[in-house]
# Entry
Amino acid sequence: MEGKPAVKKRLLYVDCFRGFFIVYILWLHAFNAVVYNNNPQSIDNANPWIFVVFAPLVIMATWAPIFVMLSGTAHAYSMHQSLIAYKGAKKITPELNRLLIGGLVNSFLLIFYSFINMIFFHHRMPFNGKFYETLITGYIWKGSFPDFSIDILFYTDALGNIGISLFFLHITLYALWRSGELFDRRYTFRILSAIGLTLLFISPAIHQSLDPIFYQSIQEKRWFIAWLLKFLLAPLPNMAYGYIGAVFGIALSERIELEKIKWYGYSLGISLILIACGIINATGLSPAEFAKSPLPFKIQLLDAGLMSIVTTVFISLMEYTNDENRKWWIEHTTFFRRISMVALTIFLLEGPVAVTLGRLYLFIIGSPQEFPKNPLYIIPFILIVILFWHLVVKIWEKVGFKYGAEWVSIQIVGWFRKKKS
# Structure
């Protein structure tokens, strides 16, 4: 069945990627936030063997925008699939309006969850020259309530990035498709790609110009400017990944030829990687640059290029294959796909859970004050964190993952869509 995929309700590779990378976050935050307490100085002074052991995983630490790309793919695919039935119809505005309302409500919910995360659940973190702790995770770690500062709300986590990016993506798709370009895929692909690449390439200049004003506004408590700049700067350049992801989503919804998807994904990916390598060759690349926020432009280009290529590879393997191969992938990715169903809830709660497990682990090994910086202690702890969530999700699946953040969002978005219709 080469050439065109069968119509699928869900994209297998999106579920697999989302599950894989949420597991990746579990181990990364357990390593960085619990073992090293998110302290860059502690990491700088760490035993080099730590990074030799964990190098294969650390190399993907800058891939957080993959969640924006996957969300862009999933939302564009779902939105387009809902409109396919209207092909040939003169008026699709009512259905398009309903989809836009649902998409915008979902975006606002993600931004709301982001604020909840930054108030209660996020790990201890450096921001704007200081360390900040959230109320619940900070309490578990310290044994007392931390001094909470509103300044931490100006940091935008992955949920905020996804929410803001999807807000603009939904408006863009609405504007494109309302004007009658729903099935002019070349026009749609060109516009989305142009927006994505423009955002990617202008982001460094925007950050260089406005970041100092943003941080100064926070320090001087000029809240209006600070909030305005937060929502302007936070999604850059990550919003670009959402637009690129949307191209893949619409291509899969249209079921276009695999060769065309390969041409797009590989040519885009290789081009971005070559530009990144040229900049790296001219300016060099140090390990410290991987910890900067925002990431240096060369790393952003490298990440976008690699993600485009990897996405194309797995689209080929999972979405454009025969039934037997697809069945094999389904059977061998159950672990990741199950976790992907509650990735949002896990992202919200992994902080207090990891810190609680860390406290219990330190008590058991007899080191209550500091986590031993030794792989023989670190690896079992990381495995415990992942095993804990595996068991929770496996049990939770039996009741249909009810009452998690995803379930709540589905109920709210569904209510708004019905109200609109």
In short: Residues 142 and 169 are 40 Å apart (CA to CA). The first strand starts at residue 125 and ends at 127. Strands lie at 125-127, 130-132. The chain has a mean pLDDT of 89.
